[in-house]
Amino acid sequence: MNAILGRSALKRATAMRNYSSLREIIPPNIGFAARAGETAEPTAAAAAATLSAQDVSKVVSLYRNLPKGNVEAKVVRGGPLARYYNRYFTGDTMSAAPILHVIVAMLVGGYSIHYLKHLKYHKHAENH
């Protein structure tokens, strides 16, 4: 029981840590609106609403590094094999996943063939 409670507490702590790290990159006008709805003493609310130079520089650097302009959607023409090829074999998306796909396909196919040719006749060991 303690292990279960410990896991849930760990999940809550991780979620809160992620939440606090996400608050650092919220734009100032949204951050001020969110902070205004919080219940706190007036002096604490005023202190929370002021941003330091480091906070502002984080927001500015975030928005400066975002891509600008319209991005054209990459259209892949062709059937399933063309889409598979473009997904796993071209550009920045190259990976070793097709090797794993071949291994899984051979295992599933091999077991299926073995079952159809041999195992389905020996389900209950009547033919032995």
Automatic annotation (TrEMBL):
The chain crosses the membrane at residues 96-116. Keywords: Membrane, Transmembrane, Transmembrane helix. The keyword Membrane applies. InterPro entries: ATP_synth_F0_fsu_mt_fun. It comes from Coemansia aciculifera. It holds the Pfam family F1F0-ATPsyn_F. This is ATP synthase f chain, mitochondrial. PANTHER family: ATP SYNTHASE SUBUNIT F, MITOCHONDRIAL. The keyword Transmembrane helix applies. GO terms for molecular function: proton-transporting ATP synthase activity, rotational mechanism.
